[in-house]
Amino acid sequence: MEALPPLPQATAFFPQFTAQQPIELLIQEKVMSFSGDDFAITDTFKNPVFKVQGKVMSISGRKTFTDMQGNHLFDIQRELLHIHQTYVLNKTDGTTIMTVKKKFAFLGNKAIATFTGSDGRQVELQLKGDFFARKASITDNAQGGAVVAMIKRGLSAQELIFGQQMYKLAVAPGADMALMVAFAICLDEMNEAGK
């Protein structure tokens, strides 16, 4: 994937996870997890960056998102009483960090994520993807449509045999890596729910 240019203005909730340079992350679903919804997030050198662990027997599909020091950053869960698929990222005290809503798209995928940045600015990111959910771009329209991240889903033998998803996520300098990973996982969940 190509390196993304820096954002004109940082788009982050977690300043400590703001990309300082173009970075590519790998999001890999774990095949042999007890919940079936665990993800390992690494950089291109296979260094662990984040960990996502699905909760067993969760109606809302709750997933715990932690950094590699074991700090619980937030939970990802589906809110069930909405017309459009809606996912929220909640801190441990129940405060919502980000909301991701799937929007109707005639061809392809479309979703909107909203959150308040660390600078107090209201941020609205738009995800547009192709029909087969193989590629998607995340843009910030308030910054002239600047590309915040790109998602690309590879097709591998593991996916064909075991159904294991793997995504490459290119993150622009100035973007929050944790939120971009969470947005990609929400896209994965939306696509799985639509099958």
From TrEMBL:
InterPro entries reported for this sequence: LOR, LOR_sf, Tubby-like_C
Annotated protein name in UniProt: DUF567-domain-containing protein
Protein family membership: Belongs to the LOR family.
